[in-house]
Amino acid sequence: MKKDNPIEKIFWSIALPGFGQILNGKLCKGILLIVLELIINMNSNLNEIIMLSLQGRTNLAVERVNYRWLMFYPCIYLFAAWDAYRDAKGHTGRCEFLPFVLSAYFGTIGVVYSPSFRIAGLLLGPVWLPIVCMFLGVLFGLAFRRFILR
Fold first, then answer.
1. Max Cα distance, the chain (Å)
2. What are the boundaries of each domain within the chain?
3. Residue 119 dihedral angles phi and psi, to the nearest 5°
4. Rounded average pLDDT over 30-56
């Protein structure tokens, strides 16, 4: 299989963790990640809290989420994206993992603080705060990687 488009593999992993691995020909790893995603998704009530958050019913989403399970999601999600990216490239450069790792770390912190963290009085909840934190993690990871490589 031709391994020439790592960005495509990241986007498939964003759609569902494990798809990028399957496209890279890593069937067992891909299936394992899909199964882990489904287990975490179902036990954390992720689909329901996404729906409630999109409807603006963030307080209800906070009540319905199982935080013990949701805390695993950013790590599985970002590991799958990084792994698909790495396998598609066939190698990794120095510190290419940093944006993914810091995004997972910041996303998990976002999950922890999501029941109470407000911006301008607005409760972001268990979907929006981790997403915002994940983007911040990517930015910090890119900056940190650039600093290290200098």
1. 51
2. 6-149
3. -120, 120
4. 97
